[in-house]
Amino acid sequence: MKAKSMWKIVAPAVIASLLAVGCSKKSSDFSEAADADVPEVADSNMTAEIDNMAEAILQSADKMEAADWLTQHPTSHMGGDANGQPIRLAPIVSRLRDAGAQRIVINTAKIGQREFPAGMVIVLPSDAGPRRKVFKMDAQLSQACQQPPVIDRGQKYLHYGFD
What we know:
4-stranded antiparallel sheet, two-stranded antiparallel sheet, 6 helices, 6 strands
């Protein structure tokens, strides 16, 4: 019982710190990324950390299937475009689903009584064609979430943290 209670306290802090580390980026312009000491593409260690973090999110209670989230919160958005305009989450989820994502989960967080989307985990397809289609969306999603883009290294998941 104590371990379970401890996990409820520690897990959100661990996930929040991983999100902060994984999503920190000084500039939304990738040409300036080298000046900010941020890799142009996430390295293999970061890719492994993303898989571990995604596993933890998928096992936590702080998640909701994207379709269910959007039913309850249809105007949700993630990050912003180059002009600072919010990017609606529903069209992104639809495009990911059409591309072949196996599962799309919204990582949720609560402040007081309000629940909001903290990020998104995408379970990647194993088939090469759909997998390529999902990865084609990564540049836009990574930029919107101000995190380094990733390449296919055989990982199981993609994760995008929302501000």
